[in-house]
Every structure is written in C-alpha cells, then in structure tokens.
Amino acid sequence: MLQHSDLVLDRDAIPDSEEERSQISAADDAALLKTMGYKPVLHRTYTLFENFATTFAALYFIGGVRVTFSTGIMAGGNLAYWTSYLVTMVFTFITAAVVAEVCSASPSAGSIYLWAAEAGGPRFGRLLGFVVAWWSTTAWTTFCASNTQSAVNYMLSELTVFNVDFPTETTDVKFRAIQWICTEILLALAALLNFMPPRYFRFVFYFSSAVVMLDFFLNLIWLPIGTASTWGFRTADEAFMSTYNGTGAPDGWNWCLSYLATAGVLIGFDASGHVAEETKNASVSAARGIFWSTVASGFGGLATVILFLFCAPTPDKLFAFGSPQPFVPLYAAVLGRGGHIFMNIVCVVALWLNTAIAIVAASRLVFAVARDGVLPFSGWVSRVHTGQPRNAVIVVWGVGAIITCTLLASNVAFTSLVSAAGVPSAAAYGLICLGRLLCTPKRFPKPKWNLGRLSKPFQFIGVFWNGWVVAVLFSPYEFPVTGANLNCK
Asked: How many domains does the chain have?
C-alpha cells in the first residue's frame, strides 16, 4: 500500500518553467509524469480503446438524449431542440479539442484540475487549480448520484405501466423512500465494481460500450417498427418545424432553455483525461480519447434526436404518460409489454455501467486532488492499493450516498443539489480556455496532440460557448418563478 509521501516527487527536481519542461524528452509515460512532479504509482493498463470508452460510456449519448428529450421539447419544441443540438455539437467539439490539447500536455490522473493550474500559469495557476478542483469533484460526485437515480426512475416507471397501486409522484414520501433505497443499492453495487483488478475491469469498458450500441441499434430498428404499427410517424414538418412552450418563459428565452437539454448530453468528456495516468502512450491516446469519443457521441446523439422526433408522439401525449421516465410507457405503447421490459432492462444496465465508469473518473479526480494535499484526510484518501486509488472510490461512493439521502426530505432538495451538476464542468472548460487564452498564450508546454493555428480561435470560442451554457444551466426552468419551482430542472 503506497502512502501519501510515495506519490509526489521532490519539487526541486521539477523543471522550473513550462519552456524547460516542454523540452524534456518524454520517451515513456513514466518520464512524462515525472516532469509534472508525480511518481508513477497507478497501474498503466489501459489502451486507446479503453480510454475512448471511458468518455463514450460516461456520456452514454442515447441515454442522455432520452433523459433530456422531454425537457428539450418543453423548451421550444422540436424546432428548437434539433437546431440547438446542432449548435451544441459544433461548439462542444471545439471545446473538446481545446481540452484534449491541454490533456496532451499534462496527461495525469484528475487531469482537469491540473489542466486549469497549467492554463493559469505561475500567477493564477494555484487559484484556477483550486477552484476547478472543487468544481469538478462536486460535478462528478453529484453526477454519480443523479445518474443512479435516473436508472431507478426507469425501474419505478414500471409502476405506471402495470398500474400498480402505489404512489408514483415525487411529492409522496412513500415513492421517494423506495426511490432512495433502490438508488443507494445501485450506487453501492457500481462502487463495488470499481474494486475489480484492472485486467478485469477493462472488460467493463467493453461491455458498457457494447450495451450503449445495443441500446442505440434496438431503438434504430425496433422503435420505427413499433411506431408504424401504433400512432404512426410524425410528418417532416411536425418533426422538424413544430414549436412548443411548456416552461411559461417568454418565447425567446423559452427557446434558449432548449440548450439546458442539448448541452447536458455532451458534458463530461473530460472523463478520458482522468484515467490518463492509467493509459499507455497517454499524451496522445488520452487526447484522442477525449476528442473522438465526444465526436462519436455527438453524431450518435444527433441520429437519436432525429429518430425520436419522428417516433415520439405529440408533446401533450408524451407528457400525459405521467411517469418518472416518459420513455418507459412510450416503449410499452409501441413495443408491447414484453418488448418494453427488455428495452427497459437494457436502459437500466447501461445507466448502471455508466455510473460505474463515472465513479472511475470521479475517484481519479479525488485521488489527484488528495495527492496534492488539498482535501481533508488527504493522506488516507490518496493511498494506492495495487495500482488503484480504492480509498478515493470509497469517498466518491460515500459522498454520493449522502447526497442521495436528500431524496427522503424532498425531491426539490435533491434536484437542487444535482440539477446544476453540469454547471461546474462547463465552467471549468470555459476557465481552462480563458487561462490558455490570457494567462499562458506562449508559455504552455507544447503538446504532442495539438491544434496548431486553430488553437487560439478555438480557445476564444470555448470561453464564450461555455459561458453561455453556464448562464442557461443556472436559469429557472419554470415560469413564473416561485419558491416552489425555483430549483426544478
């Protein structure tokens, strides 16, 4: 078992400047890691595919579209949803490219907080690193809790489908109690999966990616068949040009709120960077993993959006299902009870594996922050067992379990904590872009995977795009705003 003192090199041995560090020949991953001041203590097992799969599975594009679909339709309708998604794709790809370039220069565990420190330079690096460390740990731990609850919502939506005499409204404490118990169990099981040896856990990446693609192709093939035999396809005009205002906001802002749904689908692509210290040829593979998994997820999400726009019923009918997850009764209506149960099992398994991989990313971030002594009890949190930060996994599970307990008090209390989970990540992306643009425009270490002349324009775009996303994510979703609906997203 490696102690805290075994994780960090003598700081006097670290290059004094970014220019000097960029000139060091990093013949292997261990040498590059040492230039950042850290000893190589984590297992170096994963290849490009496992790194790619970390983000690909964490984003889970079809699940993200399914969770946010009703939100997007409420805010502007079909026309707003698909056009906003196209805009989101382009600007998220640009942001991911900037982040991938920064990752190539600093491929280590918990990368996003170190990227911010690098981007801030000698003057602002500590401040930016500290802020992003807390932002990102908050984002990832709350995501683990909320994502598990999403899986439970699929399970409990069967109560509506089978007309079980049990409350299905989140305002009922009995429903919230069952929701809480199921969420805690699935979260604990996802955390336990992270204690598998790396040579076995790598198959979790394979299986998770396979389930994501199974989910996608089942919808691509099965959903149109079921739709054709039930309520029929929406016309092209209905699918692409119809509008809707279900938020009560002024029409202009109602349209803007569609970005609350579309941006959420592709937030979290920094996951591949968090396992960079466990990836072979990390300076190239981790950067490629970030960028190409985001591109693959973006185009997969676009195909899913178009599919759902043609196959989903009218907004009034969709919202009338009265279920924690509207797609469960939708699948029941178009696929039949037997078909929709299989589809629902796929959704729950995919989300559970999604949570397990999110815990991977979150625990590596917690480990890295503790390695630098930022967290309380950093010495214990940063201990490494056989190349794995298992104590950090326990911390992520513990915090997620505590956050989930707020479900018992109030659903609004829970959504208050997790609805803004995407805000810290988007803010961190924008802050990294801003730091690269203003603080280290010429003194940043030269990465192996770089954007060349596009780097500066992409950084500029990334600042304003992520600023816009943060503004939308902070906005109330229901108007007029009251104390009861302020935190409802």
From this structure: 1
High-pLDDT (> 90) share of the chain, %: 56
pLDDT digits (tens, 9 = 90+) for 423-446: 888 999 999 999 999 999 888 778
pLDDT of 390 > 80? The answer is yes
Q: Cis ω on the peptide bond leading into residue 329 (within 30° of 0)?
A: no
The span from the CA of 414 to the CA of 173, in Å, is 13
Report the chain's mean pLDDT, rounded to a whole number: 88
- The per-residue pLDDT for 488 is 52
Tens of pLDDT, residue by residue over 339-371, are: 999 999 999 999 999 999 999 999 999 999 999
Q: Measured between alpha carbons, how far is 321 from 228 in angstroms, rounded to an integer?
A: 19
- What's 208's domain CATH number? 1.20.1740.10
CA 405 and chain centroid, separation = 22
Residue 61 falls inside a structural domain = yes
Q: Give residue 167's pLDDT.
A: 79
Please state, for a pLDDT cut of 70, what percent of the chain lies above it.
90
Question: Residue 376 region, left (φ>0) first, then alpha (ψ -120 to 50), else beta?
Answer: beta
Contact 274, 99 (CB under 8 A): no
Residue (of 418, 421, 366, 354) closest to 393 by Cα position: 366
On the question of pLDDT at 14 being above 60, the answer is no
In a domain, 381, yes or no: yes
Lowest mean pLDDT among 13-17, 187-191, 223-227, 381-385: 13-17
Nearest to 183 by CA among 191, 171, 195: 191
Q: Which of 14-18, 79-83, 359-363, 470-474 has the lowest mean pLDDT?
A: 14-18
Amino acid at 488: C
In a domain, 403, yes or no: yes
Cβ-based neighbours of 452, under 8 Å, separated by 6 or more = none
Domain of residue 135 covers: 46-474
Asked, for residue 127, whether it belongs to a domain, the answer is yes
The reported pLDDT for the residue numbered 415 is: 61
